[in-house]
Amino acid sequence: MPVVPILVEVLRGSLVESAHRASVVVSDAEGRVRLGLGDTARAVFPRSAVKIVQALPLVESGAADAYGFGAQELALAAASHNGEDWHVATAAAMLARAHRSEADLECGAHWPARQEDCGRLHVAGLKPGALHNNCSGKHAGFVCYACHAGIDPKGYTAVDHPVQQAAKAALEDVFGTVLGVESCGIDGCSIPTWAIPLDRLATGMARLATGQGLAPGRAAAARRIMEASIAEPFMVAGTKRFCTDFMTALGGVAYAKTGAEGVFCAAIPSLGLGIAVKCDDGASRAAEVVVATVIAALLGRSDAPELERFLRPVLTNWNRMTVGGLRPSAELVEAAATLAP
Amino acid sequence: MPVVPILVEVLRGSLVESAHRASVVVSDAEGRVRLGLGDTARAVFPRSAVKIVQALPLVESGAADAYGFGAQELALAAASHNGEDWHVATAAAMLARAHRSEADLECGAHWPARQEDCGRLHVAGLKPGALHNNCSGKHAGFVCYACHAGIDPKGYTAVDHPVQQAAKAALEDVFGTVLGVESCGIDGCSIPTWAIPLDRLATGMARLATGQGLAPGRAAAARRIMEASIAEPFMVAGTKRFCTDFMTALGGVAYAKTGAEGVFCAAIPSLGLGIAVKCDDGASRAAEVVVATVIAALLGRSDAPELERFLRPVLTNWNRMTVGGLRPSAELVEAAATLAP
Description:
Two copies of one chain form a homodimer.
Chain A: E1 6-12, E2 15-28, E3 33-37, E4 43-44, H1 51-54, H2 56-60, H3 63-66, H4 71-77, H5 85-97, H6 115-123, H7 136-148, H8 162-175, E5 184-186, E6 192-194, E7 196-197, H9 198-210, H10 216-231, H11 233-236, H12 242-249, E8 255-259, E9 263-268, E10 273-279, H13 284-298, H14 308-311, E11 314-316, E12 322-328, H15 330-337
Antiparallel strand pairs in A: 1-2, 1-12, 2-3, 2-10, 4-7, 5-6, 8-9, 9-10, 11-12
Helix pairs in contact in A: 4-5, 4-7, 4-10, 5-7, 9-10, 13-15
C-alpha cells in the first residue's frame, strides 16, 4: 500500500498543530491521470460526493421534466444542504409534485446545520423533520423518480429496492466498476454507499462533465444536473458552506461536491477533467484545501485573491482573533504547480 | 521524525473507511516510560487537557478556600463543559463570590454544545454569553484567583498578565520544561497555549496524580483538583461527553481530560502513571479510543463490558441503524496488551 502523504497542515501560531494525509487523483474521461498522489487505487466510500450520479435516474426517467423541476430542484436532488428554509421548502415542493410528503422520506431527521435555523424551530416549539436532513433533496428525488416510474417508493432506501438498484447501475456505469456486496456500506441517510477506487471516481467525474463514455441520454442528464448545481450553488450546500462559496468564487467554471469522511468529487468541464479526494482521517477541512489547491492550479488561479480563503483558510477563536490556519503542504504545492495551464 | 502509527480505525460495514495516526506515552512521575508509540518527543499544544495545571494558582493562592469552592467548582475550573444550565450557574456563582460577573470573562461566547440547551436560549430570545463558553469555569477561576491575590483581572488572558504568568510557571514546573515564546500559540478562549513534548505531558500527569516532584502545596492542590474532577465528572464535561461518561464508568479510579485537536491527558493515581495522547490529524474521536484502550489495559479491564462503548464505539445513522464503528488498531491492541497488570 503506498504511503499516503501529508497534503494539508494546520498551524497554530507558527507551529504545525495537526496534519492531514490525503490521496488525490486528477483524470480525464479516458482515465489518463494528470495527477495522482497517495493511494490512488484505494476503494473509498464516496458518500454524498456522488449524489449527482444517484440523481441521474430522476432526470433520465423523465420524472424531473414531468414534475417541472428546474435548476434549483436538480441542484437540491444532488445536495448536502444546511436545512435552511429554502432548502426545506424546495424539498417539500418536489414531493408535493408527486403527491407525496415528508412522511415518505426515509432519511431520518436531524437539526439544521445553522443555529439560526434551529432557533426558528425552537421558538415554534417544533423538532426537525426529515425535510431538514441534509439529504432530503436527494431523497425527494428518489421518491419522485419512483412515483413517476410507477414504482412504490416505500422502502426505497433498501439495497434491493428498484430505486437503489437504479442508482447502483448508474454508479457502475459512470465509474466503470462492478459493485459487489463486499463493497457495500450504509450511509448516514440509510441508503447504500458503495466503495469505489479513487482513480475511477476521478475518471467518472470527467465523464459526467464531458459526456464521454456515457450513453447520450445519460450524458445529457449528467450535464443538466452538473450545470444546475453550478448555477444554483446555494441549493448544493448553503450559507457559509465550502461547496457553495467555492463554486461561487470560481464564477461557474467548476463543480465541487463534498462527501462525509473527507471525500470530495469535482470536475472542470472546460478542461474535461475530474478530481477525487479522500482524506485518510476523514477530515472535511483538509479535503477542502486539497480540492481548492488542485482546482486553482488547473485554472491558473493559485494566486487569485478571491480564492485565498479556500486555499489557506484562517482559523479564528471565539473572540475573532486569528490563531492559525490551514495550508497545503509543500508536497501538495509542488505537485499542484505541475498542473498549471 | 518517527513514523506515527495508525492507532484507530473507523469502519463502515466491513471496510476501513478512515484511519487515525496517533502518538501515546504512559509514564511514571520520574519519566520512566511504560509505553511509547509514535512521536513521543513531539511538542504538542495540550490545549484544554492541562486545565488542571492552569487551575493550580486558584487553589494554591487560597482563593478557592476564601471563596468556599468545593469539588464542583474546582472540577468546573478545570473543565471543558457543555454549557448546560448547571455549568453556567456554577460559573456565575464562582464569579459572584469574588463580586464579579460574566462581564469580566474574556473567553468569548459560543452556543452550548447540546441543542436542548440552545433551545432554551432561543425560546427566551437570548444569545449565548461568555458563561456558556466551554472554558467559562477556567476563566471564572482565573478571575477569582486574580481578585483574591489583589491583581486587577482586566486583561487576564494576555500572555504577560500576572494570571497567565502564574499559569505558565505552573506548567513549566509540573511538566519540567521551559516555555519560550516560540512555543506559544493562542487558544480558542484567547489565553496562551504552550507546546510541550508529549512524554513530558505524560510524566507531568503522573506527578499531578502522585505529588512526586512537586512542592507540598502544589502537590496538595493538584490532588484536590484531580479528586474533585473524578468525584464530579459531570462538571468536567457534561451529558453524553466522553470525559464524564468514561470517568463514571471507571468508578473513580482514573482522571481523563480532553483537549482540542486530538489531545488527551489522563492519570491513574493508584498506579502512579500519567498518560498523554496526540492524534496527528486532531480528531477527538480517535484520541478517546486511544486513551480508553490504554487505561482499560492498565487496569486489566480490556474486556469489561461497561467499557466496550469507549473502546469500540458504535456509529449509528439518523435512523439509528448501526453503520460501523471505531476500533483500536492491531498495533494498539498489541501494545496495550503489554500493559496488563
